[in-house]
Amino acid sequence: MIKSLQTPEPQLLKPGIKAPVQETLLTPRFYTTDFEAVANLDISANETELRAVIEELRADYNRHHFVRDEEFKQSWEHITGEKRRAFIDFLERSCTSEFSGFLLFKELSRRLKDKNPLLADAFNFMARDEARHAGFLNKSMADLNLSLDLSYLTKNRTYTFFPPEWVIYTVYLSEKIGYWRYILVHRHMQANPEYQFYPLFRKFESWCQDENRHGDFFKALLRSQPQLWNNWTARLWVRFFLLTVFVTHTMTVFERATFYESIGIHPRKYNNTVIKETNNTSARAFPLILNTNEPTFFWRLEQCSENNLKLAEISKSNRPKIVKFFQKIPPIFGIIWHILRLYLIKPIDAESIRETVR
Ligand SMILES: [Fe+2]
Ligand SMILES: [Fe+2]
What we know:
Elements (H helix, E strand, L loop, with lengths): L11 E3 L2 E2 L11 E3 L2 H5 L7 H13 L21 H32 L4 H27 L3 E2 L1 H7 L2 E3 L2 H28 L12 H20 L8 H24 L1 H6 L4 H16 L5 E2 L7 H20 L4 H23 L4 E2 L9
Helix pairs in contact: 2-4, 2-7, 3-4, 4-7, 6-7, 6-8, 6-10, 8-10, 8-11, 11-12
The structure holds fe (ii) ion (FE2) (2 copies).
């Protein structure tokens, strides 16, 4: 078994309403951006592809998909102990990140309405999808007698400012990694139905197609902005964002290894496949991708996760603050060192292989 953290007992805001987990670098964040700059984006370099993707979003293929059918109508009290805690934690993280997408897309569609109606439409369609996803996850939490107060979250979470370029890189990646995360769980459940302990996972197949379309929109937007891929600074940023997304993913998967094991998923294999597939997919959008076949690649990612688990253990201990401070220095430097070494691995040029990738 892979070492992971014990999920803490959920804290309540009021009866039945779960207090949001403490914000850390790994919890899903809420974003804001320079709306004026997004409204003024010149998309003419890739307008045909963008319009085609937006028509796909408009078609709303999943409008009848998010229905809580008969299967949900039963008691879930038999899910207990660590599995229940870890599942609630999984639902909360997923719900928060879907909701974070909803808030950003909704605000973008509102602010762009008059100046850029085409992009405003796209953001409106994506906000519609994310609201469905977040709502569905929150209802699943309610099946376990808890839910998230989303309006409380809206008002009380801190919003991180990202310039539009960073939003395009990171949202593209989070949509595509979201696609791979959902589809791999779905495929696993299809092959091993004995692990299907809750019907949510059955919904993932069409659900992940929403994320795929969102990713395709951001890919088309990114390719409409040559400065986001045709120069050396863009190449450095792309490496940075790919790496941070993969490090964060590894840390969160290994923190919740117990949950994945409880549904029959091998955390290491799952993490490696999600990262490899997301990296390969990114070759369609980015000027380069990372070399996941480099022998130390996954080992270094896991070293970051090991150090992250050490940090969590130190934080949880009852030792005096000053002792904790000094104890945290080596694992922090460990993470920085491995990230730096990963960053320096020679990437793979994607522009030259563009025609051959899916
Ligand atoms: Fe979503
Ligand atoms: Fe999405």
